[in-house]
Design goal:
heterodimer, A: 190 residues, mainly alpha, Rna Polymerase Sigma Factor, Chain: A, Arc Repressor Mutant, subunit A, 2 domains, B: 245 residues, seven-stranded antiparallel β-sheet, 42% helix, globular
Amino acid sequence: MDTSDDIAARALYDELVGNCAADLFAMAYRLSGQREVAEDLVQEAFTEAWKSLPALRDRTRARAWLMQILRFRWLHWLRARSTRPVEKAGLDLVEDRAAPRADPAAPPMSDAVQEALDSLDERFRSPFLMVFLQGMSCQEVARELDIPLGTVLSRLHRARAALRRLLPARSAEPPGTAPLRLVRRDGERP
Amino acid sequence: MADAALTPPGDPQRERVEAEVALAGPWAEQLWLEILASDEHLRVALRQVRPPPGLLERLRAVPDSAPPSARPPMASLLSRPRAGTRIVAGVLVLVLIGVMAWHRVASRAEDERRLHTVALLAMQDHMHEADMVVRAADPARLSLELSRLVEFTVRLPEMGRGLKLLGGRPCHLGSHRVALTLWSGGDRISSLYQFDPGELGIERPDRPVVVRPHGPVAGRTPCEVLFWSEAGASYALVSRPAHGS
């Protein structure tokens, strides 16, 4: 028979899944570029979270805690599969990654973003995702990665520049939306 | 500027930059807004990831396969000692409230930053764009024509007496398509934007929220932007005097 401890733990765990699983999957996918790998990472992260639930002392940091577990799982995965050092030199090197399996239902921009992310070195990709996807502040990222704030800002700057360069220009009005009539606000036609 | 755009509204670095932008004039304000819009574009695109079907169910099954020795003791998480089955329900309620509270705290700062950015983009559009693609005073007709143009269902809310519908057009806030309708009332022109908050990456504003963006836009006094949701649609309303600022 389940004890009250078991019931409370299960309730907390289920809430974590409901509130964080989608965000964790998004982060895992953006890190790995592969949906199957992303699901494995998320599964491992939540398994570890279930086993480590007593370590979560501050519930306001639950999402950040889960993201940290995910990131550790990601680095472990990188080390396990790579025969080269994780740290690479230079922004322009393309990592040895399997071709990402795109989600056919995803918006085109999502695929373009993933392709752009895949071209980034891990040193630039992680801080960028921690700020732009996870919503961390630059100071938090610096503490988390144990690197100077200036280094975080520099890596963010380069990652943003690379992504903006690689992403397609934001679309103008798509076909089919040409004005029927163009009317000035005062009601007179131009 | 780019570094300051990463900080939340009210941050000292951001306020310094916004003050300098205001002094520099419209060209700097335009650049600032482009940086904000570009960052929002990236943030929203990053979130456009669909979890695989059944993921949540598989994750919820994890504890079922965890061996008994792996089940964590919850004593360190509970604020009161076990005292029998009569308080189990109370404990559960506390846990659930606590979890809901952390979720709100964790997401509120990010949503505030995002609402602020969307408000700035809406203000910029309101200040600079005056054309209408469809001129119609009939809400039903305008909704129908705009729905065809923006490719989502446009629903116009009850705007109250004294506000007259002028027309509308498809519009972009950042890089995201929204439906804009223009309204006049007294000496004010109002722009009403209908958007999909999920696409823009902000929580659905179920309670009305007024955002007063920091820093002037295009040299003019900033407006207030009202966000709210009703009948399954979400809106942002910006208004200013009809003639000049």
